[in-house]
Amino acid sequence: MQPPAGSQVSHVPAQRTPSEQLPPAPVPPEPQPPRRRMRTVLTVVAGVLALLCLGGLATGLVLYHRASAPDRSAPDVVVDNYLRAFLVDRNDARADLFTCEGGSQLEALRSLRTDLLEREKRFGVTMAVSWGSLSVQKHDDAAAVEVTLIISARVDGLNQSDRQPWRFDAQLDDGWRVCGGARAS
Question: Which one-letter DSSP state was computed for residue 101?
Fold first, then answer.
């Protein structure tokens, strides 16, 4: 309110307390960031990432299992895989995945491979084994598979080969397995 006109009011400036004597001005608290919202977002993101990682791991394991599992789906497939592992790759551990548990009668094929290895050493050549189509005669849980093995080598610049008919016996036991094999007449 203003003083009435003509009144005598002192125009002396008001005395102020020196600033160093004033109490510090209250500092308004900083607004808190919404921690709950941030925590919720981080939790959801972490959960989604964990699920994606677990899903990727599970998918990887399934694909690995499918790729590494031996194919024993049919008698001709198991004989083909067995011959490839035993005669071409010469991998006994892999070949055993295609044979019957204990008592498989594959001595004749083992003798053939031993003979091929001895000839390779003696003549300094590489013996290659291949085969054509496989003929299957299936009876319930047993099958006979006939195939002609072609054994070839290059000796003194000449290709030489021998054709041998073979017959393999397969049994259905957790997939098809080779249980016996002998040279057919």
Answer: S
**How far is residue 83's CA from residue 130's CA, in Å, rounded to a whole number?**
9
Half-sphere exposure of 56 (CA within 13 A, CB side): 6
Q: Residue 164's CB: how many other CB atoms inside 10 A? A: 14
What's the pLDDT score for residue 6?
62
Show Cβ contacts of residue 73 under 8 Å, excluding neighbours closer than 6 positions. Answer: 175, 176
Q: pLDDT digits over 131-151, tens only?
A: 999 999 999 999 999 999 999
- Name which of 71, 84, 70 is nearest 147 in CA terms: 84
156/125 Cα distance (integer angstroms): 9
Residue-wise pLDDT tens digits, 58-82: 998 888 877 777 888 899 999 999 9
Give the number of C-alpha atoms closer than 13 A to the C-alpha of residue 3, restricted to the C-beta side.
Answer: 6
Alpha helices in the chain (DSSP H): 35-68, 75-83, 92-96, 107-123
Chain-centre distance for alpha carbon 18: 79
| Side chain identity, residue 8 | Q
CB atoms inside a 10 Å sphere around CB 116: 17
Place of tokens 């007449």: 185
Question: Which amino acid makes up residue 108?
Answer: A
Give the position of tokens 């607004």.
Answer: 31
Whole-model pTM? 0.66
